[in-house]
Design a protein that fits this description.
heterotrimer, A alpha/beta (469), B mainly alpha (286), C mainly alpha (322), A: 469 residues, alpha/beta, 7-stranded mixed beta sheet, 15 strands, globular, C: 322 residues, mainly alpha, two-stranded antiparallel ribbon, 2 strands, 75% helix, 1% strand
Chain lengths: 469, 286, 322
């Protein structure tokens, strides 16, 4: 009994100590963390989107209005206010490759902003963005905890999304709870953006439009094609793509002879390919992720399956896809962006929308110079995330979230990454409505080397689409 | 359903089954000798894949000629792994050895990710194939079957004809009795862990000639190895080979008759039923 | 229920509550999110420990109940507008029912066979749910953001989920403690040491094991329900993720197999370590390698786990460090 009492006392003391620590924490917090909030800009200078285009037609990377650049940059940079951009990245796990490229693209944007001396408002206030990110291990478990940490402890001013739809969904929930503006890249999911989010904006073309262009392309380059097989990985993203493609293709008069998903862990596709072959399709559309896409293409080739047109998700745009040699030839892949795209200030003018940011060539060259590797669409997405935020801050002439949201709502412009416009309807607010997919194909150049070309849409193509033989 | 498709798929399943069998044999051998379920099996398979990739792409060695190097590499990896991670806990409860080998799994996957990233990889390898309508018998598959049989034959010759092999079997049967007979059980165990690893890596190398892969491909293959091993009876190498063939055939034939995404459901249900009703495997006594 | 008045349990209660209430009184949302994950892991590890630590059955795929609870609750909340507390309880009930039904045959298996069977069960559920369109199939399900309005907005919903997980964690720990201290627990440990001898002593191993399995399935299901409610979406992959199951085993080993405090300490150490490795710029790239190495060192040299080691070293601690 005595011992028990002693133990009890220790326990109570321990708890008291903990509670004291707990209570001490909040009183200490405000003093130790200086708020990085933006100063309120005078209301007269509020959103003035019409004033911007003139200033932005020049390539942005070297853009430096008048006198500020040469002498004053360093001095101004010292006074620049910090703007913290927080996100999580997948440094390990299944999404590691794409996520790394995305962060590299973002880093390049940050370099460009630094070179330009920061983001400048009309009243001369300078903002210098910084990024802070944690590893989410490609898993949803800790995404929400890490975003809460970014918002509350690191005091992130703006958020970007992790790579992949599932992770972005979880992150967006936290962002919305805290009223933080988030620009998502690498998250092409439709349903995420159909729940009435207020501060989340999607950069990628949503999944529902991922393969619809491929169906259009098929009918153009192979008008005799009637029967298509839609086969896809049974995961969230690929299934949404396939579910949207089926009614679209049928609406265009194509006959979907097979519509089947395969398990995420599938290793061997040869029996499945036999089954597909038995339905005699003219084209196969679908796919999933890395390993399965690569195997699928290889085994189609090995079996000499007489299908004239094959479009697979995700794997083909990866440079290592060409490991499988001749099997890669003719495979088409949808891509958010490719280095050969032809978005430019001129095409923007033709479309009667403003152009913003570096040219495609400037981006690609800078990327190659920095990373000794050509940029993928993930890299472009990463850069575009930052670029968009920069543009929104300039348009809003403020870093106030509400004004940034208003600026993003109004945005309709072309960048090296393509056209960007967000839905402003309540239910689908923030969903990407303008950006289009491009389709790349592995082809052989004159010397027989495997290269990629853009084959669709026609106005962006760098070579004609080829049919499999 | 189309009869030709059935034949074509059965051939595909059968040929792949031999490689699956070889893969599972590595797991079952280690369990049979030391009652350890090796959770590092998946990464070992992946190491075999990447060993062939590096040897053929960077050093220009033909994938098949690279196999002897893979074997040596596997033996060294396995023996080292045994002494580092398994030896100290060989008599501990199974949870301990599970976690010890799982830690090997984590380290290997981490290291491989740092080196190779998780990009999709593949070998470009073309051999003549036999074709008749839908039926295709690929050269790569035929060679894979032959190598799988060769390796199995060599394994049995080793276990039944050589002195070391016999001592490994003795240790598997009764470790303390074997020790009393003057067998160095430590080395016998290390060697069998090494051989198990060799089998995993060789099967990985063969799978690399058939499929595209990534650093993370091992996870699914490891689970598949569990299924095969249980089917054939834990600790029974012949059973593993047969189990591999059964799974290969089962997968390919069920693909034709049901939506392909139901195939794994079917597979795992079969797996659980076998465990419950014939825990010693299809071959083993009840 | 004499054990409920045991001071050892009170200490655990006070410490866990003290830590868990820090973000509530301190209004620290980031800490709250981190502690949510921590308490979830405590629940998972403790419930695995109930079946594994006390009966010696290594339930490798215990995460299957997390997924079942998550899916059941999510379905009820999304399509039938259930309150999340009720939905979570039903999820827990269903998980326990399934554990009861499969427990009978599966628990007949011993050692490695049981471990493999639980993996198979988890994979079977994952692949099955992927094919069930009513549960969203491969795409999974998503809560409309407006669902949270019923709880006063997403922010307060997440606060409520946090209170929920505190309660679940405490409940799990209490169950773990009560079982260990009861006669029932003693019979379990007798089974663990030698099932045949236990039978001679008049224990019905089959019944005892199935009961334990059923109890240990209840808590991860509650945790799953709360986690996915807060997360806002559920997919088969993350719901039935075998890796998370193994993590829970690692925590039990870290803290101390078969002890009440062990899984709590294990979860805490594991989560802190992981958090450190991932946020540290030097280690973040190699964090898998480093955590693997640390795990190996612990498995090889500190087999009893932190709590077990302390109990061995300081005999007086044995009185109240359960």
């Amino acid at each position: 009994m005595r011992n028990q009492l002693r133990v009890l006392t220790i326990g109570i003391l321990l708890t008291l100590g903990l509670i004291i620590v707990a209570c001490a924490a909040p009183t200490a917090a405000p003093t130790s963390a200086p708020p990085t909030k933006a100063p309120v800009v005078e209301p007269t200078k509020a959103p003035a989107p019409t004033a911007v285009p003139a200033a932005t037609t020049a390539p942005a990377a070297t853009k430096a209005p008048e006198a500020t650049k040469p002498a004053a940059t360093s001095a101004l940079a010292a006074q620049a206010k910090k703007l913290l951009i927080g996100f999580t990245a997948s440094q390990t796990g299944a999404q590691q490759v794409a996520s790394k490229k995305q962060v590299e693209g973002l880093q390049l944007w940050l370099d460009d902003v630094k070179k330009a001396g920061g983001i400048k408002l009309k009243d001369g206030t300078l903002y210098m963005p910084e990024m802070k990110f944690y590893d989410d291990e490609s898993k949803t478990d800790r995404v929400q905890a890490l975003y809460a940490k970014l918002i509350n402890e690191d005091k992130a001013d703006f958020l970007l999304s992790p790579y992949s739809s599932g992770l972005a969904r979880a992150a967006a929930v936290v962002g919305e709870q805290n009223g933080k503006v988030m620009i998502t890249a690498g998250a092409a999911d439709d349903v995420t953006m159909e729940q009435g989010f207020k501060n989340t904006f999607q950069l990628y073309t949503p999944a529902s439009r991922y393969l619809t262009g491929a169906a259009d392309m098929l009918m153009k380059i192979d008008p005799t094609a009637k029967k298509i097989a839609i086969v896809y990985e049974k995961d969230s993203f690929s299934t949404s793509v396939a579910n949207a493609l089926k009614p679209y293709a049928e609406g265009k008069g194509l006959n979907v002879v097979m519509f089947e998903g395969y398990d995420t862990g599938s290793t061997d596709f040869s029996p499945f390919i036999n089954k597909i072959s038995a339905t005699n399709p003219d084209a196969i559309l679908g796919g999933g992720h890395f390993a399965d896409g690569t195997t699928f293409a290889k085994q189609l080739y090995d079996k000499k399956t007489p299908v004239r047109f094959v479009t697979l998700l995700v794997a083909p745009p990866e440079p290592t896809f060409k490991d499988i040699g001749d099997a890669a030839q003719y495979i088409i892949g949808p891509s958010q962006w490719e280095p050969q795209v032809t978005y430019s200030a001129e095409s923007a003018k033709a479309a009667n929308i403003p152009y913003y940011g570096p040219s495609v060539k400037a981006f690609t060259d800078a990327y190659v110079a920095k990373y000794k590797d050509s940029p993928s669409y993930h890299s472009a997405g990463g850069y575009a995330q930052g670029l968009l935020l920069q543009k929104a801050i300039e348009d809003a002439d403020s870093v106030d979230p509400a004004k940034i949201v208003a600026a993003l709502d109004k945005m309709n412009l072309m960048t090296f990454y393509g056209v960007i416009k967000f839905s402003t309807e309540a239910k689908t607010h923030g969903k990407q409505v303008a950006h289009d997919m491009v389709y790349m194909q592995w082809q052989k150049d004159a010397s027989g080397k495997l290269i990629t070309n853009i084959v669709w849409p026609l106005e962006a193509k760098s070579a004609d689409g080829q049919l499999r033989k | 359903m189309n009869f030709e498709v059935l034949i074509a798929s059965s051939i595909d399943g059968l040929t792949l089954g031999f490689v699956f069998g070889l893969m599972a044999m590595g797991l079952t051998l280690i369990f049979g000798v030391m009652k350890v379920i090796n959770l590092g099996h998946g990464p070992f398979i992946v190491m075999g894949m990447f060993a062939v990739l590096v040897l053929s792409q960077n050093l220009g060695i033909n994938p098949y000629l690279a196999l002897p190097i893979v074997i040596v590499l596997g033996l060294v990896t396995g023996v080292v792994t045994y002494f580092v991670a398994v030896h100290r806990v060989i008599n501990a409860p199974e949870l301990t050895t599970l976690l010890a080998t799982f830690s090997v799994n984590m380290m290997l996957i981490g290291a491989l990710t740092i080196i190779f990233s998780t990009s999709p990889r593949g070998l470009s390898l073309e051999l003549p194939a036999f074709r008749a309508g839908t039926i295709t018998v690929l050269g790569t598959r035929v060679v894979a079957v032959l190598i799988a049989l060769l390796v199995t034959g060599a394994l049995y010759a080793f276990l039944y004809r050589t002195h070391i092999g016999k001592s490994i079997r003795a240790v598997a049967n009764n470790r303390s009795a074997a020790e009393l007979m003057g067998i160095n059980s430590t080395w016998a165990l290390a060697l069998s862990f090494g051989i198990g690893t060799v089998l995993a890596m060789v099967s990985g190398a063969l799978l690399a000639t058939l499929f595209g892969f990534t650093v993370l491909s091992g996870g699914g293959l490891e689970t598949k190895s569990f299924v095969i091993v249980v089917l054939g009876g834990l600790g029974n190498p012949t059973g593993a080979l047969l189990g591999g063939i059964v799974i290969g055939l089962l997968e390919s034939i069920t693909t034709i008759f049901m939506p392909v995404s139901y195939v794994p459901v079917f597979e795992f249900v079969v797996f659980i039923l076998i465990l419950l009703f014939r825990p010693n495997g299809l071959l083993g006594a009840r | 229920m004499k054990s409920l008045t045991n001071p050892s349990l009170w200490i655990i209660w006070f410490v866990v509550l003290g830590v868990a209430l820090m973000p509530v009184f301190g209004n620290l949302p980031a800490l709250r999110e981190e502690l949510f994950v921590l308490l979830m892991l405590v629940t998972l590890a403790s419930s695995v420990n109930i079946i594994m630590g006390y009966t010696g059955y290594v339930s490798f795929g215990h995460i299957v109940f997390f997924g079942i609870g998550g899916y059941t609750a999510f379905y009820l909340i999304q399509t039938l507008q259930f309150n999340f507390v009720l939905a979570a309880l039903i999820g827990g009930g269903i998980a326990s029912l399934i554990a009861f039904l499969i427990g009978m045959p599966v628990l007949r298996l011993r050692g490695a066979y049981f471990a493999l069977a639980t993996i198979g069960i988890n994979e079977a559920f994952r692949t099955l749910v992927t094919n069930v369109d009513a549960l969203g199939g491969a795409v999974g399900m998503l809560l409309q953001f407006s669902v949270y309005d019923a709880y006063g907005g997403a922010k307060s919903a997440s606060q409520l989920a946090y209170y929920g997980i505190i309660l679940v964690a405490l409940l799990t720990i209490t169950a773990s403690f009560v079982i260990k201290k009861s006669k029932f627990g003693l019979s379990l440990m007798a089974i663990r040491e030698d099932q045949d001898t236990a039978m001679v002593l008049g224990i019905d191993p089959a019944r005892a094991k199935v009961m334990t399995y059923t109890i240990s399935a209840f808590f991860p299901a509650l945790a799953g329900a709360l986690f996915f409610f807060k997360n806002g979406n559920i997919e088969p992959g993350p719901a039935f993720e075998l890796h998370r199951s193994i993590e829970a085993l690692v925590m039990v080993m870290l803290g101390g197999f078969g002890t009440v405090t062990g899984p709590i300490v294990g979860a805490f150490v594991y989560e802190r370590l992981r958090g450190f490795l991932i946020t540290d710029p030097i280690f973040s790239n190699a964090h898998l390698v480093i955590s693997g190495l640390l795990l190996l060192i612990i498995v090889l040299f500190v087999t009893a786990g932190v709590v077990g080691w302390l109990r061995q070293r300081i005999p007086t601690l044995r009185r109240f460090l359960e």
